[in-house]
Amino acid sequence: MVSSPLLPASQQAQSIYDLFQIVMVIAAVILLIVTGLVVTAAIRFRRRPGDALPRQDFGNHRLETLWTVIPFLIVTAMFVLTVRTMRQVDPHPIDRKPDLEIEAHQWWWEFRYPGAGVVTANELHIPVNKNLYYRLTSGDVVHDFWVPQLGQKIDAVPNHPNYAWISADAPGTYLGTCAEYCGAEHAWMRIRVIAQSPEDFAAWVKDQRQPAVSPSGMGIAGRGLFLGLPCMNCHTIAGTSAQGTVGPNLTHLASRQTLAAGVFDNTSKNLARWLADPQKFKPGCHMPNLNLKPNEIKVLTAYLEELK
Amino acid sequence: MSKHPSAASPSSIREVEEYQGLLSWVSSVDHKQIGILYLLASLFFFLFGLSEAASMRIQLARPENHFLSPEQYNQIFTMHGTTMIFLVVMPIMIGLSMYFIPLMIGARDVAFPRLNAFGFWIFFFGGLLLYFSFIGGGAPVAGWFGYAPLSEKAYSFSPGQDYWAVALLLTGTGSIASAVNIIVTTFTMRAPGMSIWRTPLFVWMTMINGFLLLFAIPALNAALVMLLVDRNLNGFFFQTSHGGSALLWQHYFWFFGHPEVYIMILPVFGIISEVIPVFCRKTIYGYGFLAASTVAIGFLSFAVWAHHMFATGIGFPMYYVFAGASFLIAVPTGIKIWNWIATMWGGSIRFATAMLFATAFIIQFTVGGLSGIAFAAVPIDWQLTDSYFVVAHFHYTLLGGSLFGIMAGIYYWYPKMTGRLLSEKIGKVHFWLMVIGFNGTFFPMHLMGLYGMPRRVFTYPDLPHLGALNLFSSISAAVLIFSLLIFFYNLAISLYRGEVAGDNPWEGWSLEWATSSPPPPHNFEKVPPIRHRRPLWDYQHPDLPDPVFEGTRHDE
After folding, report:
1. What pLDDT does A278 receive?
2. Using the beta-carbon criterion (under 8 Å), do A157 and B247 form an inter-chain contact?
3. What integer is the mean pLDDT of B366-381?
4. Which of A260, B3, B521, B531 has the smallest CB count inside 10 Å?
């Protein structure tokens, strides 16, 4: 997997990439001319013994006007292309309600689907070939939502909701990240966008709308422990009394690919390590070390593993 | 070397007690001593900035490294940026301006010598205060642009952010004092005959720079005071949880911050405009265009700040205006590049180390300028801002540009300041290692950005190419830092063993070369007559005087 604006996977990212290529070609030509002239001058006009005093050339207004006007025309052309691409990337909608709500937190992402009533974290599922309009907010400091292959980045500014578009041309997993420095764990505020066929997406939504499964075996003790510990103050597990909104919604935690916004793959071993000491793997994060005993970690892991 | 005898007789005033001994360095109001103090203090802080850079490159050398904790890394990158900008590049510029403006315009000193000393000491203690934060409860962690509300107490509880704000208030106040001094000196202290159109381009550009400082720094100071009120008196200018505005800080900061990037390059444009003609034995090409384009940059630099905010959602009308202005500012900057090349063209170029640095400057600064134009194209900015592409971009302008230009200036003027030449042999090793180290460190950062690496991350996942690019960058950074240690060695050893320079080792034409090296406390016994832009040229080539340009006669 890569995470590069050079491999656009949506119309929007493609438009930006096209503009980028044009600007880079112009820049390369200018750089080539400048470097060529400097190197040529350095070789041709290097001082040699017995050189006469060079002609004192004070300038030439006509020539200088030329190298004022030509760059002006070049940047004017670039400006026109810029405006055109801006409109392709961000067409202004008329009274369209957002399909998605994204809220950034130190250091994780909350994704809400207002139509379907689904809430999830760090991994965004979207149907392919559908341009979705999203509303982006922040619960604390300034963050930035950036999935390079799918389109523009945009800041999540507290008290200042922003709106933008996201889509993907083909099913697949697209990586992104927070792109505005937001404190200690800015590096581990990764994003995964999972683009699915409309059928797969519909199935995913259906699953996500279910409340959490009733645990079995060790998981039953795990649920009891979860609801007895401070976990429930911060996390929601739908269908239980855990309704905290400080941390990610865990109702379907086991259906996600990663943990802690990209720190680990989602495996039971990693989950147990995480519960044992979050501060060791994501120092500074807002999840405290609850000093759980090995047995408590075991049953909690068993419970959370069941939350498909 | 010049045909006239040395105009200075250094023996007399140098014996005055006030100009001798260590105490004179503390009590001095002499622009040359203060200029040197600025340079020494900058080099001192430069060592800190470099060690911070080295720590960051060690941490990033491989993915998911644990050399530094996130908290340490965040402190270090914040201090690296703040140090290099406020405690290294700016004071070097101010130091060179303070030392050379009076000499180049034939003045005895700056207009306000005591204000000059005040400016230096308040800057120096501001810098020390910033570093005191390490032992005073933790260094600042909110980055050099201290975005609110991250810089507010709710998110950055350690006093580091307060130290940061107070330190920048102090250094900023010093910069304003220097700006006033530079402007007034340039306008009122020029020797008879030196009309504004005969003033050397270095003075021209530092004078414009004075105006930039004067109008930009107060915006920062105002914002810093508001931040301090928020943090210590429960204000809520930027506290979003209490209805404050995060974007208000950004507008204030970048209203200062974008002129600031020109503040760090205009004096270098001046240095390059002095160095290239001298080493090409050819007059500067298009003096008028070079001076006027600087004025254009000065005005435009106050109309581009929101291009740092293209991803904040401030709206299309704002984007159009600031994208337009940002494209436009490329034009006067481009004019300078062409004029410098035209100056080299047809010259007789001597590649002393100063000229090597000036030549590399032109190419590297062009790279930084062109990647800068890409950021004026709003959609490209939407992809690449806050990625490593930006880190590459501004290091090409600030290091490949400003620092290379500063090196050209130091190799050029060190003999004037010390009386001895820097070793050319060591200088060439320094130059080539620095070119290799610099480009090796920062060119790959363009690619890191294009492979999706955001800036200011203490680590990164092991995605394709990122590990290899970062490792290459870190190894090159070692070469770059080694080259700078060679530079420090050269500065030290040449002070004692360098070749004695004489008054005018490079056959320069501006007035600083008309006095002894180093100049006496009173600068000139007698200022040579100024009939043209190149006063010493007339002595060297009495048979080939410069033409007198229109509009310059009224002074005679």
Report:
1. 96
2. yes
3. 96
4. B3
Please name each of the domains of chain A with its CATH number: 1-46+60-209 (2.60.40.420), 218-304 (2.60.40.420)
Looking at the partner chain, which of A46, A81, A162 has a beta carbon nearest the beta carbon of B351? A46
Would the pLDDT of B13 be above 70? no
3 state DSSP class of A132: strand
Number of cross-chain residue pairs from A and B with Cβ atoms under 8 Å apart: 277
pLDDT of residue B15: 58
Contacts of A140 in chain B (CB under 8 A): 149, 155
Instruction: Classify residue B65 by its DSSP letter.
Output: -
Nearest to A157 among B246, B316, B335 (CB): B246
pLDDT one-digit tens code per residue, B101-128: 999 999 999 999 999 999 999 999 999 9
Among candidates B268, B329, B321, B339, which has minimal Cα distance to B298? Answer: B329
Predicted TM-score (pTM) of this structure:
0.94
CA distances from B314 to A156, B246, B373 (A): 12, 12, 20
Which of B339, B122, B290 has the alpha carbon at shortest distance from B221?
A: B122
- Tell whether A58 lies on the interface with B, counting CB pairs under 8 A: yes
With a cut of 70, which residues of chain A have pLDDT below it? none
CA A29, A31, A35, A37 torsion: positive or negative?
positive
ipTM associated with this complex: 0.96
Among B380, B470, B541, the strongest candidate for a mutation testing the A interface, having the largest count of A CBs within 10 A, is B380
Domains of chain B: 35-540 (1.20.210.10)
Q: Does B240 sit within 8 Å of A144, measured CB to CB?
A: no
B370: which chain A residues are within 8 Å (Cβ-Cβ)?
27, 30-31
